[in-house]
Amino acid sequence: MVDDSELKRILGEIRTIAVVGCSKDPAKDAHRVPKYLQMHGYRIIPVNPTATEILGEKAYPSLDAVPIPYDAVDIFRPSADV
Questions:
Q1: Measured between alpha carbons, how far is 58 from 29 in angstroms, rounded to an integer?
Q2: Homologous superfamily assigned to 15-81
Q3: Structure pTM?
Q4: pLDDT category, 77, cuts 50, 70, 90?
């Protein structure tokens, strides 16, 4: 089990986050959360098969298609899809 200090260290090292299910719709959490992350210095990589760009970043159709290294993945999908 990871203790709090180890978790804080890990989270402190994250700079680039792939966001699976990132949305273009500002009313959805799948848009608001990545936008918040951007505003706080994180680079987001949108992963959405129906978009070409979200929040000023090139969108990719799948994680396999992302050519950029990322530190974490944030998933906005129904639990049945994961």
A1: 19
A2: NAD(P)-binding Rossmann-like Domain (3.40.50.720)
A3: 0.88
A4: confident
Q: Shortest CA distance to 66 belongs to which of 12, 10, 22?
A: 22
Tell me the two tokens of residue 82: 């994961």
- Long-range CB contacts for residues 42-47, cutoff 8 Å, separation at least 24: 42/14, 42/15, 42/16, 42/17, 43/15, 43/16, 43/17, 44/16, 44/17, 44/18, 44/19, 45/16, 45/17, 45/18, 45/19, 45/70, 46/19, 46/22, 47/18, 47/19, 47/20, 47/21, 47/22
pLDDT in tens, 37-73: 999 999 999 999 999 999 999 999 999 999 999 999 9
Amino acid code (one letter) for 17: I
